Every structure is written in structure tokens, then in C-alpha cells.
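Human: If only I could read C-alpha cells as easily as an amino acid sequence. Take your time, and here it is.
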Amino acid sequence: MLPMFRLEPCVLLLCTLVLSLFFYGCNEDKLDVYETGILDGTILDFTSELNLNGVILTTNPPTVSVASDSSGYFIFKTIEVGEYNLIARKNGYVSESVSLSVQKSKTTTVVVLMERSSEYNDPPEFTGWFT
């Protein structure tokens, strides 16, 4: 049997080591916190200036996709701070791209005008003198 005076320093060392590991493991993991802002706006027909609904909006660099509502309004509620190209697409219209900057805790508002695509335009009808 080992003498008692030799076990006590080993037990003390072991307890110190276990407690050190316990407290070391209690540190909080640092999360990557992204600074965000808001991006919103309205999509309008270039010629009539009427609101366009159902326009699909994406960003480059990619985030999420949203669609404009019946009043042409769209919103990216939390978008990471930075420089973006906003791309608007709708059948029958030429895609549009707008460069913009999103700032921390601020709202960036844009108005996008979209032109009808020429492939969807009908040629004018001739209603001349010979009808």
C-alpha cells in the first residue's frame, strides 16, 4: 500500500486538471455576426410607369430571391452589408440590373424601370387605303 502523503498531491493535481478542463470548456463559442441592412423598392413599367407584380429579384453576390407584389413593391428584410447587383426578371420584359450598396442598419431603396421585350411586341397593323 502506498503511503498517504504521496496520494494527496496526485489527487490535488488530478482535481486541478479536471477543473481546468471544465472551465476551459465553458468558454462561449464566438458566432459570426453579420452586419445587415434592408433593401427595398418598386418595379415599374418603363413606358406606362405602372407597377409590375411578379418580377423575380435576385442579387449578385447571391442572397435570396424575392418577387414584387401587386403594387410592384419588394423587400429583402435582412441582407448582409456590401455591394450588390440587383437583377430583375419578368417574362415579356428585358432583364434589368442595378448596382447598389447596402449599409449597416439602413434601408436602401431603389426604383427599377423595366422595358417590354421586343420579341413580345406585335408589329403595327396596316390599315391603309386598300381595305
About this structure: Residues 22 and 67 are 50 Å apart (CA to CA). The helical segments are 4-25. The mean pLDDT is 85.
